[in-house]
Specification:
With 380 residues, the protein is of the alpha+beta class. The chain has helices at 20-31, 151-155, 159-165, 184-190, 197-200, 232-245, 300-325, 328-335, 349-362; strands at 8-9, 35-40, 49-55, 58-65, 68-73, 88-90, 132-136, 139-143, 170-180, 214-218, 222-227, 253-258, 262-267, 270-280, 283-293, 343-344. Bound molecules: FE2/S2 (inorganic) cluster and fe (ii) ion (FE2).
Length: 380
Amino acid sequence: MFLHESQLRHVLPPRAYFAPEQYQQELDRCLLSGWHLVASMGDFKRDGDYVTLDLFNKPLLVRRIDGEAHVYLNICGHRHCMLVSKPKGHEKAFRCQYHGWEYQCDGRTAKIPDAQSFRPFDRENARILKYRSERCGDLIFVNLSSDGPSLKDQLAETYQPIADAFSQPFRQIWGWNTTYPANWKIAIENLLESYHIPCLHQKTFGVMPPEEMIIHEMNDRWTSFYTEDVNPWIKSNARRTARALGLPFRGMYTQYHVYPNLVFILMDTFSLAKMVVPTSPTTSQAIVRVFGPYGPRRTPLAWISARLNTLVAKEGARKILEEDASIFAAAQKGMESSPVSGVIGRREERVWAFQDWIRRKCGIVEPKSHALPVLDPSSR
Ligand code: FES
Ligand SMILES: [Fe+2]
């Protein structure tokens, strides 16, 4: 059931989806102090493996050292060259590509060629910056600010179910980093409603679940969508896979949106994590990691079932994400030209909740008549 009893107003005006001053407010008040998904342990097979990415225009390096992932500013302490330039790779030594300076796990220098010419050594000005990083299951998150809440604080009640869904026997089956020609909120809002399913996902999900099969939860830190009305084909594949692998089967679909920009989809044999961050007022980037189970049963039949599930899950996720992304440019163009503020349906109430969270964080005055009554779910 939905929590609102009548339609809602847009809390954010179309201008909030392209105006540079709103973009800056969101960076300062909503995004820069938060935890951001950068990779998963599934991206690394051995120590020395690394991935690079840009986050808020900062080049980052995520490197596996002694079995754990560490996140650094990808800039050398010598003369500021990027340590490595490839999107991913393996380097046995933690070394800068320009003059070969080597670093330790804590970011201090290790071996320096022709070290005597740098004496006396200025150790504090010749190190690389290491960021706070934490894991939830095998998902790796970074925080660019040096203080503030832990990842567990930000994920709150969602922490444990997410940790369970992204760790053994689940492992990464697909990783995808991409960019969108749209404001980051357009890509997030797309994930928060089932209303677009008949138009955009006709060949995949098919129909949207009826209201009585949906449970929405909304609070100040996250919102969720829960249903057991899953596409029959997806459900029977999950049931078959779960049975072969010795996993419990509940036939449910749970989606969490943890404010401001993290979305997690949890099913019996499929988990998806997606982060969207802005790259400008009108463009954004997404990081996606998909996990599937390999175990606990390890018979040949279980392995074949896990492989088949991997193929189905990977292809299904790619298709659905592409179907969603196909609308982003049109949604952005519309935002930049709309003469009216628009409306939001009850089924889209999590979009409303997200906009209202942004409004409060950014100190935007509440628009008149947008605050419509919220039903007490216990009265249903
Ligand atoms: S800039 Fe990295 S070693 Fe010189
Ligand atoms: Fe969608």
